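Q: Structure tokens for this one, please.
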Amino acid sequence: MTPESCYESAHDTIYRASGTAPSSPILSLMSLFSPEAKRVKRARRMIFELIWEKTFDGMFEDREYATSIFERHNEEVKRKVPADRLLVYDVKDGWDPLCDFLEVDAPNKPFPRLNEAGTFRNRIRRRIALTYGIPAVTVLGVLVLLILRRHLRGLSRATRWTKRSRMQLYSRAFASMFCTCYQKQRSKR
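A: Here is the predicted structure, written as tokens:
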């Protein structure tokens, strides 16, 4: 993998997924209610601090600078690791070079492609949906219940409910909230 293709891959996946800030106000709020959001917040902070700030000096968007960091890192590894213990490997080559280097048989399974850009983005979308979606739906549900409860109080004061069941009360309240054709009956006093 060339430094340019490495940059493209990192930019289009982990950089976009982790964002340009260690956290967002929405993520901070969600992390109060969701353990998954808390884990995502910690991971984003770690990625931001270790990779974007420390490794790339906050200049990852400068393509030329970032690729020079990749090149410098690769050269440093090649200098420090003995040639007989180093495999310069491109994952596009699959199992064979890796298994030959490790002196093991290649598995009878297809080579995993979990970190290809499309697969990575789909995984991130699912994680975002779980991290933000479930707590958001929960909060929305609580808000609807609070609004419905408040609305019911208003209906019970303004309407005679002498022989109505609780379920009829709820269904009428729901209908009055969402249907413009519903009109409240006023009690005659």
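A few notes: Residues 178-189 have pLDDT under 50 and may be disordered. DSSP finds seven helices and no strands in the chain.
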